[in-house]
Amino acid sequence: MTTPLADLWPGPLPAPAVRTADEMRCVLADPAAPCDGPLYFMYRDCALTPEDSAWLGGQGVRFDLTVIPPAVIGGEYVKTKGHYHPENPAGVGYPEVYQVLAGEAHYLLQRKDLSDVVAVTARSGEFVFIPPGYGHVTVNPGKEVLVMANLVSTRFSSEYGVYEERRGAAYYEMEGGAWVRNARYGAVPEIREIRAQEVPEFGIRHGRGIYDLVAGPADLSFLNEPERMVVA
Ligand SMILES: O=P(O)(O)OC[C@H]1O[C@](O)(CO)[C@@H](O)[C@@H]1O
């Protein structure tokens, strides 16, 4: 694949982790849908300079880039596999920050107890904050390549169990934009559809570059110690 990252990321790129069609079947609305090859590409632990890399390491934070080419699989828009984050030592789930760099994204967030399901639309330049306790899937609902970046703690491994056991998130986004309930969840709330929102207290303002949060003076400790933050 010719990476669209060349125009978006001037730094070195590690070899990407690739999510294959076979890995994704267990979370698709139609696991038997024809699809093959890699579906998306995750460039994890990126930094512009060795100094930035050391700073990120000291913060216990990773900067990733993800490329999701457009596709429709069995009538469903291409998406990430979906995962939850565990709780930190203080008993609070690790949050995450995403920014869309190109294309459009729908972030489907679901609270662990399934009391809340939210679809957040984000366009190029907009941030999405994944609050503690919410699992998340990113959908590419467009015809463009979706490129996004994220900042996340390095102190945990993502948890895929719920998504694998229940065959994806609580809803599937189908071509044309309809959200279809996943019957394996039983009763779940209606989706709340919202636009991407800023979180100024963490320096999360649409239009600024996510990489501006790297190497200070920003403080990324909220990604490891969310118990210290108060989000309105
Ligand atoms: O692990 P999944 O559900 O495939 O999601 C991939 C996304 O999650 C991340 O690991 C960050 O949490 C990114 O590298 C990538 O965009």
Automatic annotation (TrEMBL):
CDD domains: cupin_PGI. InterPro entries: G6P_isomerase_prok (IPR010551), RmlC-like_jellyroll (IPR014710), RmlC_Cupin_sf (IPR011051). Pfam families: GPI. The lineage of its organism: Archaea, Methanobacteriati, Methanobacteriota, Stenosarchaea group, Methanomicrobia. Its EC number is 5.3.1.9. Residues 19-188 form the Glucose-6-phosphate isomerase prokaryote domain. One of its GO terms (biological process) is glycolytic process. Belongs to the archaeal-type GPI family. It is an enzyme of class 5 (isomerase). GO terms for cellular component: cytoplasm. Keywords: Gluconeogenesis, Glycolysis, Isomerase. Pathway: Carbohydrate degradation; glycolysis; D-glyceraldehyde 3-phosphate and glycerone phosphate from D-glucose: step 2/4. It catalyses: alpha-D-glucose 6-phosphate = beta-D-fructose 6-phosphate. This is glucose-6-phosphate isomerase. One of its GO terms (molecular function) is glucose-6-phosphate isomerase activity.
